Amino acid sequence: MLSFSNENYGQATSIANIKEKIIGQKSQPPYKTPVPEEYYIKPNATDTPLRKANAAFVMLARNSDLNGVVSSMKQMEDRFNKKFNYPYVFLNDQPFDESFKKRVSKLTDAKVEFGIIPKDHWHQPDSIDEKKASAAREDMVKNNVIYGGSVPYRNMCRFNSGFFYRHELLKPYRYYWRVEPDVKFFCDLNYDPFLIMQDQNKVYGFTVSLYEYEATIPSLWNTVKEFMKENPTLVSPDNAMSFLSDDGGETYNRCHFWSNFEIADLDLWRGEAYSKFFDFLDEKGGFYYERWGDAPVHSIGAALFAKKEQIHFFEDIGKKTLFL
């Protein structure tokens, strides 16, 4: 991950900054500790590893994303999953075409499942004042805010923030790795990051940290502070607030983990603290009256409701997303 000096959207915070804000200046960051040899697959091994976590890849995709999905899966299989054989779960708000399912299933020996997102998990709720929401979208379009005029993008952000982990196909699993269409992994991964999460009691893993567009979240932090004030016992006493705020929680510094890559514990989102947190945010309507993204929502949730040592920086997983 690269270090930049300007706080513009799309630019990463530095490794040193992440180390200081999450781990603390005097502590050894966990990503500097070598991965134990026991987690690595033996060279030239052809057998499936004997020990695996209860985990799956999750990909949100449309039928029209087939080429990007194929590209990502080929990368994932070549770099990692042909050695570890974890299952895939594909989710779509529309039924997947048979041609999509047939093509995707041929790319892996692992189990592949295809699910439809329930309508109430995807579409704008009836409780949203559409006149107010449309006015907000128009204003964002005028100010050239990325995806500012898009309702489907807001549906996706809300779904990823509070509903994907509730899907029937994900209920059997404990951990997930979020994969997007059109990503490239440049390095072979010869150890199992799911086992790192499981054995070391990690609940959220990331590779990149960015600054969020301020125009998309003007009231988000005040809403977060309101929730914390009403629910102080739900906030972890050893949290990572210092990653989110430079003044003890008074203001939000806009740092967030880029959720296009996530390896996380589904129980973090299923737990009481995050469930109440999401419901609180959802009632405020900021996913539609503004453009709250799942990345800052997940980041704030992980930083507040987990211990800071439970957040893991997968520094060695090389990734680049292609924007088409």
Automatic annotation (TrEMBL):
This is Glycosyltransferase family 15 protein. GO terms for molecular function: alpha-1,2-mannosyltransferase activity. Keywords: Transferase. The active site is at E262. It comes from the Eukaryota. Pfam families: Glyco_transf_15. The lineage of its organism: Eukaryota, Fungi, Dikarya, Basidiomycota, Agaricomycotina. Gene3D superfamilies: Spore Coat Polysaccharide Biosynthesis Protein SpsA, Chain A (3.90.550.10). One of its GO terms (cellular component) is Golgi apparatus. One of its GO terms (biological process) is protein N-linked glycosylation. InterPro entries: Glyco_trans_15, Nucleotide-diphossugar_trans. Belongs to the glycosyltransferase 15 family. The keyword Transferase applies. It comes from Sphagnurus paluster. The keyword Transferase applies.
